[in-house]
Design brief:
The chain has two domains: 41 residues; 127 residues, Glutaredoxin. Helix content is 48%, strand content 16%. The protein has a six-stranded mixed beta sheet, covered by helices on one side. Strand 3, helix 3 and strand 4 form a beta-alpha-beta unit. Helix 2 packs across helix 5. The longest helix has 39 residues.
Length: 188
Amino acid sequence: MSDDAVVEPRRSNAVRWTALGVGAVMVLLVVLLIVSKQADEGSGASAVVGKQAPALAGDALIGQPFDVGTNDRWLVVNFFATWCAPCVQEHPELRKLAEDGAKDGSIQVVSVAYDDEASEVEDFFRERGGDWTVLDSDDGRTALDWGVAKVPESFVVAPNGLVVERLQGGVRAREVEDLIAASTEQGS
């Protein structure tokens, strides 16, 4: 048997094992990406859900200062940024939620501007509407206290001060209203 005949099967086996190894690594990466994406898109997975709402610190850029502890209605705390495209997309839904809540006094919206200049926030609301309280981010401390991962992110807080839900990636007024109705029926 010649040396060429011995080298060829070894090379063929090495290529086969290398291809299988690379394939296994690729499959693991795809699985990890899918699992991490699903975890990011979930709602409710937050350290503050089921607990008393953290304080809302920061100066009022629009509206009046706000204290979670003195609220007597459902509260939607929205973390946003003027430069965030999904935040711009969700803004009409927040406006509707604030308007619907103002009609019967059942829901109040409070926003916290994340990494924005006061003038940009004021321009944003002047151009897109909305008249609820907007606080500055208190150098990110408030977002940290609430466990915000990325904007937009909102929290639904019951009148008793308990955080009942975390909503990531934008809110829809109808879904928040349905969530509040279901929570009210359960006695939250």
